[in-house]
Amino acid sequence: MNINELNSNEIMPGFHGKIIHGSDFTWVYWEIDKGSSLPEHKHINEQLMHVIEGEFEFTINGKKNLCKKGSTFLIPSNIPHSGKAISKCVLMDVFSPKRDDLG
User: Fold this and answer.
1) What does the mean pLDDT of the chain come to?
2) Is 41 buried (19+), middle (13-18) or exposed (0-12) by CB count in 10 A?
3) DSSP string, the chain
4) 101 within some domain
5) Does residue 51 lie in a domain region?
6) Number of domains into which the chain is organized
7) Are 49 and 92 in contact (CB under 8 A)?
8) Contacts of residue 73, Cβ cutoff 8 Å, sequence gap at least 6
9) pLDDT tens, 21-56?
């Protein structure tokens, strides 16, 4: 499998995702437009978020973090989080269990 051959879908405004589902996890490669916002939400899935490129303001449980290339965060199940792309960004998320609500 080659990431360049995966289809990209705009999951929410400005958030373009390439998604792979395993039996117990979901992996998402995000290309995010500058200024795009992720509203506060939570889910049962644990989430590992990693910044590949750009700057992303990531708020976890009310605490803001300026994330740059190499930043990685583990978001436990049911913890509120939100974010905003300060620049054009590339992020990678891994969710467990898999996210059936993502294409």
Assistant:
1) 96
2) exposed
3) --GGGS--EEEETTEEEEEEE-SS-EEEEEEE-TT-EEEEE--SSEEEEEEEES-EEEEETTEEEEE-TT-EEEE-TT--EEEEESSSEEEEEEEES--TT--
4) no
5) yes
6) 1
7) yes
8) 48, 49, 58, 60, 65, 67
9) 999 999 999 999 999 999 999 999 999 999 999 999
User: What is the extent of the structural domain holding 91?
Assistant: 8-96
- pLDDT at residue 103, rounded to an integer: 74
The CATH number that applies at residue 53 is: 2.60.120.10
pLDDT number for residue 1: 79
Q: What pTM, to 2 d.p., does this model score?
A: 0.93
Rounded CA-CA distance 24/35 in Å is 32
Q: What per-residue confidence (pLDDT) applies to 51?
A: 98
- Residue 103, in any domain of the structure: no
Residue 3 forms part of a structural domain: no
pLDDT of residue 97: 97
Report the C-alpha gap between 27 and 2 in whole angstroms.
Answer: 14
